[in-house]
Amino acid sequence: MTALAFSTSTASTRRELLELLCSPEFERTLEQSRADHRADVRRWLKILGEKGYGALGFAKEYGGAGNQPAALATFETLAYHDISLCIKYGVQFGLFAGSIDNLGSPEQKAKYLRDAGHAHLPGCFAMTETGHGSNVAGLCVTATYDPDTDELIVNTPGRHAYKDYIGSAAEDAQMASVFAQLHVGDENHGVACVLVPIRDQDGNLLDGVHAEDDGAKAGLNGIDNGRLAFDNVRVPRTNLLSRFGDITEDGEYTSPIENPNKRFFTMLGTLVGGRVSVAAAALSAAKSALTIAVRYSDSRKQFGPPDGEEISLLDYLTHQRRLFPRIARTYALRAALDHLAYRFSTDDPEDHPARREVELLAAALKPQSTWHTLNTIQECREACGGQGYLTENRFADLRNDIDIFTTFEGDNTILLQLVGKERLKAFQQEVKAGGARALAAIAAEEVEQWIKRRNPIARRDESIYTDPDAMGEAFDYREARALLNLANGFNSDRRKKVPALESVISHQCDLVHYARAYAERLIFCTFRESLGDDPDEGLEKLLHLYALERLENDRGWWVEHLYFSTGVSAGLRSEVNRVCKSLRPHAVDLVNAWGIPDQLLMAPIATLPFARNERILGGSRGTSGEGVPACSKAKSTQTLPVA
Ligand SMILES: Cc1cc2nc3c(=O)[nH]c(=O)nc-3n(C[C@H](O)[C@H](O)[C@H](O)COP(=O)(O)OP(=O)(O)OC[C@H]3O[C@@H](n4cnc5c(N)ncnc54)[C@H](O)[C@@H]3O)c2cc1C
Fold first, then answer.
1. How many angstroms does the Cα of residue 77 sit away from the middle of ligand 1?
2. Distances, alpha carbon 256 to alpha carbons 22, 351, 356, 415, in Å
3. For 330-334, 421-425, 597-601, which range has the lowest pLDDT when averaged over its residues?
4. Which of 21, 354, 380, 447 could share a disulfide with 293, CB 3.0–4.6 Å?
5. In the structure, what pLDDT confidence band is assigned to residue 524 with cuts at 50, 70 and 90?
């Protein structure tokens, strides 16, 4: 199956879910109290659970459908509705039930997964602490084995170790997957996950469990995020999720992975599904924002020729420049994320190198998708002027909900550093495997040779404007060069005996730069590949626009590295303009192709063509509108200030 066929296979799940989300029971309002919002989200989650949407990804023997692609498609589609619901779904089914599925033994799955997957057992995923977020290895909550009672004692040593920001912890969760330092005998076996019941079925906190509400947040206020603390709470030994480490009846710790470091990263690696889902859901929000902005800009007219009719905002080049490259990037990211979802769903989980690659792809693409979306929503808001600022037109809602996507499921900057380090390691192995001398010995000339081997025909002239091969080579070159610079930098530090942490800190920005170069090359390649050998003309234009805009965005780098002349670099601007103009007639179709139903878009400026005018004229807002000419016929009384 190809990535394309894979994404098409989820079409029926998307279609049925969209129908459900457009039904009266999922009707939503943008202005409501936090309590009402939470109540709606709770009710919707129950419906999704009952209908089986939560268990789609789990094996049939545990009450699921064994359909991972459909589970991903569900999460992504929910982001067209209320993003609080999407994340609440992710917390219950992806994080809480997912922790049991990924970290539990077959017996533990048999015991809990059916209920968790149908929302009969509401749960939460308690990893982060106030004192430690990105640094998971530094968590301070402990789970200590007591051989006398054959129990684990879960304890929070202080305020800094409260589990914090935990979705569903403040009100709904009855059980928590608690990540804690596991102590057995005299030894700390590192971070492990323990199931801890926290509330009874009536919602009362159990003995020794303390919960607080995180209160109002910038967004996602339909979710009850909160803090949890445990005062020596006892749970049976068998509550330790035991796929990667168990305690025998004799009180011995055993693990199939001896190396604690490897065990830790293998455990975290199984949770990559959250990152894959979050990247895709963010892109749904970008699509919503672009659909609203493009449709409005097409119908909204401002200025025009003297005594002629006013023209659409979308006919202005600046507007095209603000919106069209973002449409192109959204399409390109879609292809890359489809590739990631395909790899995630079809690779053998026991094939460790393949799994590491999926983790790498997710770590590279999640920052690209979430930053792109946040930035796109803001640009769309501004592109709609005052209308964009009204709550009813959705941008505030979208922006506030998406904001935190850059932080949770792995902070973006941390993820990019991981990508850089991981790729550097692979590169070092590649050099060694190739029989080359140690990296330390690579001379500048060899570096050039190495790059040339990867870019046999480095096309650095105007062909870059129209030739996808030349575009691809440019992305290739930047990635290879950035990686080599990084390798040389670390090498030089090693020779000078710079302490490891100091060396990493001094190369952090290069790691991040490299990871972006890697991701942008990957996005270009997967988008190009997804178009096939005989691409549709419109989609090919989007591919060009993606590449040209990215090249233009970082043109200083290419000029600094003498890849382009300043003339070729300057020409990129006109090329982006040219492609933008050529896309103008297709812009509305390009966003409508995403197929977001009007009921979910909600924004009146996008769903009722010329609606603002009709509504004002119709007096629905209490204005008579008498004597106001229809917008489409309005004459321009003023030319553009610059005209
Ligand atoms: C709404 C919401 C919902 C959440 N839901 C859950 C949940 O259900 N369960 C759960 O376990 N957690 C949850 N989280 C927690 C979330 O995963 C963490 O916030 C995230 O991992 C970041 O941790 P932190 O907030 O401690 O930030 P920190 O790790 O303190 O990072 C703060 C900043 O410092 C930077 N930084 C950190 N370390 C370095 C470094 N070495 N080098 C350079 N820069 C660095 C980061 O890039 C970041 O910009 C949620 C958070 C929020 C806000």
1. 25
2. 47, 15, 18, 27
3. 421-425
4. 380
5. very high
Q: Which tokens is 327 given?
A: 């449409």
Helices (H), 467-586: 468-495, 500-506, 508-531, 537-553, 555-560, 566-583
- Mean pLDDT score, 297-308: 94
26 lines ligand 1 (CB under 6 A): no
- Establish whether residue 91 lines the binding site of ligand 1, counting it when its CB lies within 6 angstroms of any ligand atom: yes
Distance of CA 404 from the midpoint of ligand 1 (Å): 9
Give the integer Cα–Cα distance in Å for 250 and 230. 26
Dump pLDDT digits (tens) for 147-167. 999 999 999 999 999 999 999
Cα–Cα dist 245/241, whole Å: 8
Residue of 73, 604, 538, 77 lying closest to 327 (CA atoms): 538
Residue 4, Cβ density class (10 Å: 0-12 exposed, 13-18 middle, ≥19 buried) = middle
Q: Could you tell me the CA-to-CA distances from 368 to 134, 237, 356, 502, 506 in Å, in that order?
A: 18, 41, 19, 27, 23
> Taking a C-beta distance cutoff of 8 angstroms, is the pair 350, 358 a contact?
no
Mind giving me the DSSP string for 30-56? SS--HHHHHHHHHHHHHHHHHTTSTTT
- Ligand 1 center from residue 162 Cα (angstroms): 14
CB within 8 Å of 614: residues ≥ 6 apart: 608
Pairing of strands 226-230, 175-184: unpaired
Task: Please give the Cα distance from 345 to 72 (Å, whole number).
Answer: 9
Q: Is the pLDDT of residue 641 over 50?
A: no
CB–CB of 584/545 below 8 Å? no
User: Given a cut of 60, is residue 365 above it in pLDDT?
Assistant: yes
